[in-house]
Amino acid sequence: MAAEDTRLKDLLPGEWTNAKIDDELVEIVLDQRRHEEAKVKLPGPLAKLVPAQFQSPWYIMLGIGFVFTNVLLLCITILVLTGIGVWGNNQPVGWGLDIVNFVWWIGIGHAGTLISAVLLLLRQQWRNSINRFAEAMTIFAVMCAGMYPLLHTGRPWVAYWLLPYPNVLAMWPQFRSPLVWDVFAVTTYMTVSILFWFVGLIPDFATLRDRAKGRFAQVAYGALSMGWSGSAKGWHRYQHASIILAGLSTPLVLSVHTIVSYDFAMSIVPGWNVTIFPPYFVAGAVFAGFAMVITLAIPLRKWYRLENFITMKHFDWMAKVMLATGLIVGYGYAMEIFYAWYSQEPAETALLHNRVALADAPYSWSFWALILFNVAIPLFLWSPKVRKNLTALFWISMSISIGMWFERYVIIPISLTRDYLPSSYGYYTPTIVDWGMFAGTIGFFLFLMFLFVRFLPMINIFEMKELLHHKEHEEHHNGHANGKAHAHVNGQAGKEEAH
Amino acid sequence: MPQIFGPAVNTIATVSLFAGAVVPFALLLTGSALTSSPYNTKVTVPLDQPAPFSHRHHAVELGIDCRFCHVSVEESAQAGVPSTDVCMTCHSQIWTNSPNLEAVRKSLETATPIEWNKVNAVPDFVYFNHSIHVARGISCNNCHGAVNDMHITWKGNAFRMAWCLTCHENPQNYMYADPGSNLSPREQVFALYKKLAAGDKLTQVERQLADGLEQVMPADKVHEGYKLMNERGVNVSQLKDCYVCHH
């Protein structure tokens, strides 16, 4: 018996049967009262304003998401009607918050693929309870990310010009530009992520279809389940499809953020033209992605009483992944400083000054904020006590999300405001539309996330049942070791006994 | 538990798989065929005008030089649409009562220009210059189609960028000099209509132009095209630069 299997009871504590798992997880989607159960205490004036049945976390979060989605729509309308001059972008800073936010969101989108593809190939069973909403998070984050470059073109209605297709202009995209590679990288990532997510949902859609009471839900989930009957043939094909998709997604975990880092690394701007960018961007993306998974998992687990599915063991391991990738990112920052010093190249040393100096460096505060949020605070994760304290973990994850945002802010405005020509030095100030769009995409993300929680199973139901099966198997063997007779409830477990 | 879907859904599911793969492409192809058709581009579709002016009658049957009306075609970006006074050079003397010329007479009386309907247009971000094309010997018909055959003027080409680039990439295919004459490239352009008016024998390339076909250099004559290109100072290395047409 492999050592890892002995941990299965930590991954699914409590007494479970297949039917009980179905009840517990399906109920979140099909029994709408679940979303009104948990109550939150609103501050005095708000409590009077909001009707009592809406004072639940689901309504509050969806409401916040809805309000900021409208802020986003408003900002996009202003932007499209006026032009991208409503952003703070101007010479010499052609890339501002839009690109900062693009890279930030793409990074957050990384955890989904890592958890669903890489951990699947590595047979890590602890991925089972977090993969579904990490994948959903990936898709929503990539949607938020994709918005920025499209709007940055200034004419989003001709954004299809980014694609190579036979056209009456006889024009092709500039294939030497990493921005075009970005188009391919991000669209491929989006497509594969959606496919992977959907294929994984099919058996669960079938469970929902079978348990749904209303005609509408039956038809909707029935259509989505594409005729899934749970036959051996179906499962066989499902296994093949998910392994193939995992194989396709695994290189994407590395390629997407590598190519996003090329947007900078392929240029000659000081602070961007650094060969360490691809690996440290990928590590940073996993770092940010896990931080967002934890940020969302902690409240969802509490509100929906998922303590038996997302356990402290899960948080412990996620925190360790964050610690490891955080150290890689910290090494990246150290190397950038080292390069600047070691090269003694005037533009690079000037950039180093602009990043770290306390005087005559208008944006150095953002570098120190980055070090604080992204390097110093995550060091608390070395302590097992902190990794077991959900409040601490939540705020450390928040700090990482803020830190990763500052990482991109440090890279973009600091380099662009002062590059080679002192005569074209400048400042960058984001406008209210910049901030509105940032807040708006966060709102849009929350909005989609909470719709997802309500209408799709946020924890993979059939993989939890598979885990239960393995757990029973393990207990059975342990039972033998202890010399106790063990009665099987489950027919499948009975079969296991035979070999 | 009763069945949620009836047996018909099996067929719908199969068809939807097929349709999902085929319909988007079919829609794209239909869209691109429609946008390239005369329905959208108006190529070969004669356009109603206030007065039924015939290029064929004036340029070929009467032998009036293009430049008599399009006065600025050799010196300016615009070929120029003639003023009412130009029409009246002749029509104050002949066909003075023709109902076809009512709009022209009215224009002269009221001193308001005739509002012709625009046949050829390029977008505002494209700077097309007639004079340089004429100076390098590019025939009017190359872009405007068989003007010598048009009773009511129509659009000869859709003026899409890919089409412009067929010549800007390979100008040697569009360079032509009549071996039997010693005219400058510019005179060569207008000589075609003089030959048509006089009923002279046309060379093969001239025949193609007069028929509104694309002027393609025969493969064995391409070296002549390169020679003419160099003589006329056509710098092919910069013809495809963006700024040549988009200043």
How would you characterize the overall build of this protein?
The complex is a heterodimer of chains A (499) and B (247). In chain A, 69% of the residues lie in helices and 0% in strands. Chain A is built from 20 helices and no strands. Chain A has helices spanning 8-11, 18-30, 34-37, 44-49, 57-82, 97-108, 110-121, 131-152, 178-211, 215-224, 232-265, 277-303, 312-343, 346-356, 364-376, 384-387, 390-417, 432-455, 461-481, 491-498. Chain A is globular and about 75 Å long. Chain B is an all-alpha fold and 247 residues long. Chain B has a domain at 55-81 and 116-245. The mean pLDDT of chain B is 91. Classes of the chains: A mainly alpha (499), B mainly alpha (247). At the A-B interface, helix 10 of A face helix 9 of B.
The CATH topology label of the domain at 93-432 in chain A is Formate dehydrogenase/DMSO reductase fold
Largest sheet data of chain B:
none
**C-alpha-based Rg of chain B, rounded:** 25 Å
Low-confidence stretches of chain A: 1-5, 483-499
What value does the average pLDDT of chain A take? 87
Helix content of chain A: 55-70%
Biggest β-sheet of chain A, characterized?
Answer: none
Shape of chain B: extended
Order of helices and strands of chain A: HHHHHHHHHHHHHHHHHHHH
Number of helices of chain A: 20
The helix-and-strand class of chain B reads: mainly alpha
